[in-house]
């Protein structure tokens, strides 16, 4: 399923609803007596919100969600990076670690935006590499050379103070950075307020008819308005040993993750390191597929893959422990998954090219990239800056960046 982002009319038409989301080309809106779930990974508390009441109902978001995914119910929202509490991750931040709306019935369609993946040059040179990023990069390099990790996704958070309506921010981002996994979430509930605005190019998992497919992205170069330079960047992505090694490491990790829940011999790689081009970047994308074992449902598969290997590195658990030491702030929703899950199917994107707010005018943006022994600190810092540039632009200006 290709997701379609809601345009300004689609987002604004539900602006009065306390809880609604736009995902998979559909708007899911909850009435007061419908249910939503939030999760605080630090306190290990799952809270159920309905009819103006909120109560703690468990300590594991996956178990509580499983109990609620009955026939005809679709969970729509995000699972943040720290939602697997059996894995090492910092928790906390401006919004809950997970927000999921439990929708019933047939959601309405929303306005689609054009998938105009034309090249746009990055306009701002990156600032000098800050000392804190250089120190984190050095810590990762030490672990890489010691053999503790083979590839690490090093990220950080930046904040922007902006008096912009979240629905308008989503409309701007959808126009400026169209991507197949664009989405919007509003959870305007006291004590658990969260807005997520995103336009992600990366498929976390599509699960339907007993099959699971994931499309990890590892390897990114910028687009350029000059056709010759743009083609050079795409060719560099296809041939550079660093990009290819990053992608291969994550591909092997995803093959392993899928083998946990799939029938033996069914995990395949239909596309290895294909180049996909979007408005602001070229991406190196691999497709990994497998048939789920009998008795394994979509939620089981989503948990087994969590968090996305492209956002951790390999080996997963040991690299996540390194990330928790090297990164100074919790990732929150960033690097998790956003989309829809039901008892029969799921369709989720990785939470990248996204921003969150608690509705207080302060927006948090996550950005970063994969680090290997071949990585250069200045190049990696520059990549993290231009990945965030378009989101910063839609928050800080009334006009979409070009």
Automatic annotation (TrEMBL):
Biased composition, class Basic and acidic residues, residue ranges: 221-236
Domain Chorismate-utilising enzyme C-terminal intervals: 133-387
SUPFAM superfamilies (alphabetical): ADC synthase (SSF56322)
Top-level division of the source organism's lineage: Bacteria
Entries under Pfam families matching the protein: Chorismate_bind (PF00425)
Transmembrane segments: none
Region (Disordered): 215-236
Protein name (record): Anthranilate synthase component I family protein
């Amino acid at each position: 399923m290709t997701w379609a982002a809601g345009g300004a009319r689609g987002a604004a038409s539900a602006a009065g609803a306390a809880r609604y989301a736009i995902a998979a080309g559909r708007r899911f809106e909850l009435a007061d007596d419908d249910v939503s779930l939030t999760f605080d990974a630090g306190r290990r508390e799952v809270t159920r919100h309905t009819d103006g009441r909120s109560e703690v109902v468990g300590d594991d978001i996956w178990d509580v969600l499983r109990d609620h995914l009955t026939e005809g119910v679709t969970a729509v929202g995000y699972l943040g990076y720290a939602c697997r509490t059996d894995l090492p991750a910092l928790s906390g931040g401006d919004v809950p670690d997970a927000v999921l709306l439990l929708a019933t019935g047939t959601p309405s369609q929303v306005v689609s935006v054009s998938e105009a993946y034309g090249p746009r040059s990055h306009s701002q040179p990156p600032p000098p590499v800050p000392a804190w990023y250089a120190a984190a990069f050095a810590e990762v390099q030490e672990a890489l050379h010691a053999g503790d990790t083979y590839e690490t996704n090093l990220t950080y958070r930046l904040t922007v103070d902006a008096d912009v309506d979240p629905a308008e921010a989503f409309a701007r981002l959808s126009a400026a950075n169209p991507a197949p996994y664009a989405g919007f979430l509003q959870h305007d509930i006291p004590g658990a307020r969260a807005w997520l605005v995103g336009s992600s190019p990366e498929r976390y998992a599509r699960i339907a008819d007993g099959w699971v497919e994931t499309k990890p992205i590892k390897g990114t170069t910028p687009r350029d308005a000059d056709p010759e330079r743009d083609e050079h960047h795409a060719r560099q992505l296809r041939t550079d040993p660093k990009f290819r090694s990053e992608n291969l490491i994550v591909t092997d990790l995803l093959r392993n993750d899928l083998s946990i829940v799939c029938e033996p011999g069914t995990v395949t790689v239909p596309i290895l390191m294909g180049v996909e081009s979007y408005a602001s970047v070229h991406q190196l994308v691999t497709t990994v597929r497998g048939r789920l074992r009998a008795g394994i449902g979509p939620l089981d598969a989503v948990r087994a893959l969590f968090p996305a290997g492209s956002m951790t590195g390999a080996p997963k658990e040991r690299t996540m422990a390194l990330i928790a030491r090297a990164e100074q702030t919790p990732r929150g929703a960033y690097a998790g998954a956003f989309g829809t899950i039901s008892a029969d199917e799921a369709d989720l994107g990785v939470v990248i090219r996204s921003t969150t707010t608690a509705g207080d005018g302060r927006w948090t943006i996550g950005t970063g990239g994969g680090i290997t022994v071949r990585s250069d600190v200045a190049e990696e810092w520059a990549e993290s800056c231009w990945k965030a540039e378009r989101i910063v632009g839609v928050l800080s200006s009334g006009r979409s960046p070009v």
